[in-house]
Amino acid sequence: MTNPKSQIQNPKLHRGLFVGLVTLDLIYLADSAPKNNQKLVAADYTVAAGGPATNASVTFAHLGNQATVLGVVGCHPMTQLIYSDLENYQVAIADLNPNKDTSPPVSSIIVTQATGERAIVSINAAKTQASITSIPANILSADIDIILIDGHQMEVGQAIAQMAKAKNIPVVIDGGSWKAGFEEILPFVDYAVCSANFYPPNCTTEVEVFDYLSNFGIPYIAITHGEQPISYLSSNQRGTVDTPEIAAVDTLGAGDIFHGAFCHYILWDNFSDALAQAANIAASSCQFFGTRHWMNAKS
Q: Is residue 29 in a domain?
């Protein structure tokens, strides 16, 4: 498989804004997830900033672009780990609540060594919702080329999507799962890239999901299925994109990485080719433990 680093294209620096969840991820590699009253000794561990928009922003920056994540971070001592990680990958932070002195959301993740499957205990952004008054002034004035919204800061995401539409900036949503309020963002979306777990109200099949999203006028829709082919709808034309066959070491963050890579490639390629390129990047990431080690792999 082609190494991700060899796929970087950068004759022009692109700028992306990634709106949503910022967490601190504590990631362990172990034989299995623990059972009740069981203690495990991990084979390895790593600590990184996490969240769908955050991991996507790191991937976008790694592929030769300029990335900013817009979310709640705050000033608790634990946030220094988030700042350090994102600074290392040259991702800027636009903090929606810089004076918040409580700890950031923390995710504890156990990756099963034999299969690459993960178990996650986390706190999402439910307790750290920001209002539109927290959006930094001129956040879209710096030649932003693309915006990704993960739905974890819904009020802010809706406002950003509306502003983007007025400025003709393409908007991507990371539809990992349905979240109340997405229906207010969908009218402004250009690319809906969703998982097989994304079921809007009254939708129980993939066909119904495609129809639901199409009714909002979204021209490009894709649904991923893990290692199975990606289904897509492009200008009323349906198709599929194959994904690479790999031996997965760790599937954590693969969807987030896919979305970050998609935001890069859609600025260069057509929809189906961008999906295929993003699938290659996500598959590469699954061959390494954690959400960062794949970026350090040698060609």
A: no
Residue type at position 227: E
Going by C-alpha positions, the residue among 282, 286, 281 that lies closest to residue 7 is: 281
Is residue 219 classed as helix, strand or coil in its secondary structure?
coil
- pTM to 2 decimal places: 0.93
Distance CA 257, CA 298 (A): 18
* Contact between 150 and 174 (Cβ < 8 Å): yes
Residue 181 lies in a domain: yes
Number of folded domains in the chain? Answer: 1
- Bridge pairing between strands 15-19 and 171-175: unpaired
pLDDT in tens, 34-49: 889 989 899 999 999 9
Nearest to 279 by CA among 292, 299, 298, 260: 260
Q: How far apart are CA 194 and CA 225, in angstroms?
A: 9
- Tell me, what CATH number does 274's domain have? 3.40.1190.20
User: Can you tell me the distance from the alpha carbon of 169 to that of 9, in angstroms, rounded to the nearest whole number?
Assistant: 21
Structure tokens at 273: 């080719």
Q: What residues contact residue 145 under an 8 Å CB cut-off, 6+ apart?
A: 14, 15, 16, 169, 170, 267
In a domain, 263, yes or no: yes
**Spatial distance between the Cα atoms of 122 and 245, rounded to a whole number of angstroms:** 29
Residue 245 identity (one-letter amino acid): E
The CA angle 219-221-227, to the nearest 5 degrees, is 160
Percent of the chain with pLDDT over 70: 95
pLDDT at position 55 is: 98
